[in-house]
Amino acid sequence: MRQEDHLKKELRAIQEELFEIRHDFHRHPELSGREERTARRIRGELEKAGLSWRAVGGTGTLAELQGRLPGPTVLLRADIDALPIRETGRFPFPSENDGVMHACGHDIHMTALLGAVKVLAKWKDDLHGSIRFVFQQAEEVGHGSAYFLREGVTDGALRIYGFHVCPDTPFGTAILTDGTDAASCDRMTIRVRGKGAHIAKPHLGRNAALAAADIALHLSQLPSRHDPMENVLIGIGRIDAGHTWNVIPDCAEIEGTIRTLSMSARATLLDEVKDAIQKTAALHGVIAEMELELQTPCLVNDTQACETMYGAALQVFGDRSKIIRKPVPFGFAGDDFAAYTEKIPGCFIHVGTAVAEEADTSVPLHSDNYYIHDEVIPIGSEILIRCALAHLAESK
User: Fold this and answer.
1) Cβ of 54: how many Cβ atoms within 10 Å?
2) Do residues 161 and 328 lie in contact, with contact meaning Cβ atoms separated by under 8 Å?
3) Angle at 146 between CA 141 and CA 148, to 5 degrees
4) CA atoms of 43 and 31, how far apart (whole Å)
5) How confident is the model at residue 78 (pLDDT cuts 50, 70, 90)?
6) What confidence category does residue 331 fall into, taking pLDDT thresholds of 50, 70 and 90?
7) Which residue segments constitute the domains of the chain, with CATH numbers given?
């Protein structure tokens, strides 16, 4: 196709423009649900490309490119929020919002999607069908996809594609999984209510702190009762109780996460968690209540969509050895791209950022010094564009 023959040239022509956009996003990171400035810049770039847009959930943005010829609809998605992390790295365009940082590469993701917008908009007259561009807020707290799904973003669409930067693989390579790509992620909050008393008279109180500690210990042991192949995880991130050293606390709070690589395993584990909480609370004579929030289900790549993604990546990298077929590259990390793939088939690929001799390009995601070279952007753009073109071509 003409588009594919000229694609790399088109991306080179706008490369510096994309780099400037990324630098702007990186300098002005915004937390989940507060991405007002980010949204304004995205919407301005969409207008420059000749696309209309509409706000979704306040700071999310949806645009659709309608081809001249009839055909199917495909979705391309990027996340736009940042993290509450104080940046310490070597960017010459560091965060100007103290305590907030694009430490998960979302500045790369949304810039790459804008690159796809700019190129595909020029080829509108050659397109069979339409492409919806999803600039999604609040991925880091697992809520952003819900705004788009409530507004029917997947209605009438056949596929969705996305990518994530990956410090675990070298720049110029990617990791692709056929099947489960990332874990489900539940956030749990357990509130324990006991009875306060002087620390010297423990028989008059019911120690919520000790009960909370015991609950956390019992929960942490539950995964060991499962077959290791089931891949389940319980993590405790915070326990808070008491106000001073010589008073038995009457309340305590536990925060943590439950993660699995299958939704059936999740259901079983949740039953065990609830049972362990109640039994442990009863032993201490306290009351314990759990609040559970499913932030994202398991992310499962569709086989056919995965093959389309593989073909696109092969055209980008030009070498099969550069595309690493690997199970669950995210491990127990989650991404609410999964909420879309519960509705329609889709695929998520992980694009490498690691550069030899540059240790900060391979530190874990969410590190305060994670460094990503601008040159990852056109790689992401090209993969997304090729997925969209391939899908529309398949469906003629």
Assistant:
1) 11
2) no
3) 120
4) 18
5) very high
6) confident
7) 2-180+298-394 (3.40.630.10), 184-296 (3.30.70.360)
